[in-house]
Design goal:
This protein is of the alpha/beta class. The chain contains five helices and five strands. It is globular.
Length: about 120
Amino acid sequence: MSSITLNKANFEDVIHKNPMIIIDFWAPWCGPCKNFGPVFEAISDKYPGLVFAKVNTEEEQELGGMFQIRSIPTLMIFRDQIIIFAQPGALPGSALEEIIGKAQALDMDKVRQDMAAQQAPA
């Protein structure tokens, strides 16, 4: 499966309708983004059950600002509408697959418990 394009109009819908989304924030002028793009697409073919999406930060500056994207490419993973991973920099395919495996293995009930504990008043 190749990636989908995320924009302000479809972002919320895609995040809410899919259990796990891997997002590549990129720009057309960015050299590392051009190198990472084919890696991202190749890995997307190995995981047909997951949604791989791209956000062009030049066209979607509001989304880039919302997520405080300061360096591109930036990889972000949402699971159950929660950001569980965000890291700038291009990755080799093996590292991306390792991150996806760890993201899939996360106990989301534990993640929600940890988040609730952090947000509870002291």
